[in-house]
TrEMBL record:
Sample GO molecular function, one term: sequence-specific DNA binding
Listed name of the protein: Lrp/AsnC family transcriptional regulator, leucine-responsive regulatory protein
HTH asnC-type domain segment(s): 3-64
Alphabetical keyword list: DNA-binding, Transcription, Transcription regulation
Length: 153
């Protein structure tokens, strides 16, 4: 899909204000409502816009601990990685799982839990029990310095 200046403007606004009305979006990007809506639908159909979500304040729900967990695997085979990834997707505390290079780990997880007891339960009783996990190192987030969800357009 060819992305022009109007599409870029639409994407910038929608990343900041996903609930904006089509009329307001059209006004902001300098289009009339019908062409604006056609462009939004084309961006959705092309997979450029994946979905729309609400961002939730985790502290308001009682989650106070964010940790980064580095996971080393015993074997670097597609089957071992597929099994790990299948199991890690089942854990709702895992916000992000990245297959990485350049570290002594194979995966980096970003997890959120209510407290240290919940972290211990997650790590010892669920993550460490996944077949193939041989090494685990954790770091705790003290403060978020930058937190973005917008992709530069």
């Amino acid at each position: 899909m060819e992305i022009d200046r109007y599409d870029r403007a639409i994407l910038q606004v929608l990343q900041q204000e996903g609930r904006i009305s089509n009329q307001d979006l059209a006004d902001r990007v300098g289009l009339s409502p019908s062409p604006c809506l056609r462009r939004v639908r084309a961006l959705e159909d092309a997979g450029v816009i994946r979905d729309y979500r609400a961002r939730v304040n985790e502290k308001a729900l009682g989650y106070s601990l964010v940790a980064l967990i580095y996971i080393a695997m015993d074997a670097h085979t597609p089957e071992r990685f597929e099994h790990f990834e299948m199991e890690i997707r089942k854990l709702p505390e895992v916000l992000e799982c990245l297959l990485i290079t350049g570290q002594d780990a194979d995966y980096q997880l970003k997890v959120i839990v209510r407290d240290m007891d919940a972290f211990q339960e997650l790590l010892l009783n669920r993550i460490n029990r996944i077949q193939g996990v041989t090494g685990v190192h954790s770091s705790f987030v003290l403060r978020r310095v930058v937190e973005r969800t917008d992709v530069p357009v």
